[in-house]
Amino acid sequence: MGSIHLPVIVAIVIAYVAGSIPSAYLAGKWRGVDLRKRGSGNLGATNVVRVLGIRIGALVFIVDTLKGFLPVFFLPALTGTARPEIMSLAIGGAAILGHVRPVFLLGQKGGKGVATAGGVFLGVAWLPALVAFAVWIVVFATSRYVSVASLSAALALPFAFFFTGVHLSDPFFIASIVVALFVFFTHRANIGRLRRGEEHRFVRGSTAEPSTEPPQAARAPHR
Fold it and tell me: How does DSSP assign 61-90, residue by residue?
């Protein structure tokens, strides 16, 4: 039996479709809740934790991370490309785009792409990805702002690449800068609230019952 060979466009479409799996939306529907209308209104793991509880939120976070990790880990080799690093980044970008604008929700707003981007870099450069994740944990533990933690991790990623000795022209280093800028773009509303002193610290309710608080009233930090 011959080896599998995927055309590049097919690999990118598969990655986009995988990234489009709306895990937060599906988790909410499983519990009878439309997360777009509850908590922060964001289809990310943070809002799942806030509305549905930490166990379901952790599961959504894992799924969102795998949506980035699995495509970049498996698909580039199947394309037979001579530049696997470039193919990994193209596939990873498609997965992130799928998470942010999922085809299964007809291109409507999904999550902010932090967990999926983390999965992408975990698949292509695990050490800088783990450094960024550690920064996220430390900043969140000290500030309780999910948005600040996400922005800090995004900033830390290029520095982690730099201090691990990669060349400034390395495609992964350049991609880490692009992803950092993208994370800042998807968090622009959070940045505005932080500047106005209106961003709310993350506080998980003591119950896992679905929250009835509308997004505008909650103004919870988005992931």
Answer: HHHHHHHHHHHHHHHHHHHT-S-HHHHHHH
Mean pLDDT rounded to a whole number for the chain: 89
SS3 content of the chain, % helix, strand, coil (to 5): 70, 0, 30
Which residues lie closer than 8 Å to 209 by C-beta, 6 or more apart? none
Instruction: Let me know: does 157 contact 180? Beta carbons within 8 Å.
Output: yes
Assessment of whether the complete model's pTM goes beyond 0.70: yes
Q: What backbone phi and psi angles, to 5 degrees, belong to 4?
A: -75, 135
* Residue 102 to residue 116: CA distance in whole angstroms: 12
* 106: pLDDT strictly greater than 90: no
Query: In sequence order, what DSSP letters do the residues of 129-154 get, joined into one string?
Result: HHHHHHHHHHHHHHH--HHHHHHHHH
Rounded-to-integer distance, Cα 25 and Cα 220, Å: 17
Domain ranges of the chain: 8-218
Six-digit token string for 107:
């291109």
Instruction: Please list, in sequence order, all residues whose beta carbon lies within 8 angstroms of the beta carbon of residue 212, skipping any fewer than 6 positions away.
Output: 38
CA distance 147 to 154: 11
Is 32:40 a contact under the CB 8 Å cutoff?
no
Dihedral sign of CA atoms 143, 149, 153, 155 in order: negative
